[in-house]
Amino acid sequence: MINKLVIVGVGLIGGSLAMALRQAGAVREVVGVGRSRENLETARQLGIIDRIETGLEAAAHEADVIVLAVPVAAMLPTIKELAPHLSPGTIVTDVGSTKRDVIGYAQQYLPNHISRFIPGHPIAGAEKSGAAAAFTDLFQGRNVVVTPLPENDAEAVTRISVMWQTCGAIVNTMPALRHDEIFAAVSHLPHLLSFALVEDIAFRANAKELFSYAAGGFRDFTRIAGSHPEMWRDICLANRDVLIREVDTYQAQLDRLRGMLEQGDGKSLEEVFGHARTARAEWLAGKQDS
Ligand code: NAP
Predict the structure, then answer these.
(1) Which of 53, 75, 95, 182 maximizes ligand 1 atoms within 8 Å of its Cβ, making it the mutation to test the pocket?
(2) How confident is the model at residue 289 (pLDDT cuts 50, 70, 90)?
(3) Has domain 178-289 been given CATH number 2.60.40.2000?
């Protein structure tokens, strides 16, 4: 049971976490802190939070768990502001999509509290944002990656893992760099590609005509270009060293395919498409089994 839970950034992720914990009867009081009053009022009206605090000092007072659920670039000012107000027993965790940057801020600004700063990332989301987009089942059956630090209290890591399991999630642990490398490949690169394709089409002279014929394939490939620009700007920048490597690897793959087109090499193209189709089918089947 969490007595006082503070959600900083009551959006899709923070709001859904509060809702799931409430539904499970695992929290007594949820306090929301954020940027716009309007979003916090929505969260209160929807019953996601019990009350709004305007500042982190009051919110942090005697908190059991503080969840940082703001965009990753807002983690630094949030951690800095929070630092002087933490009670010794409070566990701080985050839900940021990148881990090395957020961990760096915590190591720099929470050195005396680092044993109770537990980095995390729920692998669940949607293209919608804000408290109104939050829903109770978001984490049901989904993975949550926790990237514990050597300095962490084992008891605090367990409490955060149990918190996510209470929301129906499956908790995995791994080092932060491994996390950032994996998600650069399977999440950050696909988002970059999706935004890039829509941008490319949208600014052509005949964009209107092109969009009028775009159908299911275009819709599927570009679904994630409907994601929050601010959030994805922050993620791409925070993980840019690893993401640039992924862009280069993908570029090499495109160059390879371009060469096959130039050569009219249908056999090689078909081989690539065949491998990709099989790999995708196996991935999907594995997802259904798990
Ligand atoms: P969201 O729905 O936009 O929620 C973010 C919340 O943070 C909003 O309520 C926003 O307030 C508030 N906020 C923004 N800047 C702030 C600031 N400077 N100070 C205080 N509050 C601020 O975004 P989300 O999808 O929940 O993402 C939140 C975090 O989860 C991000 O770190 C993201 O990387 C991570 N994450 C997202 C996904 C996903 O697919 N969406 C998945 C896993 C993890 P306003 O409403 O007033 O703007």
Answers:
(1) 95
(2) low
(3) no
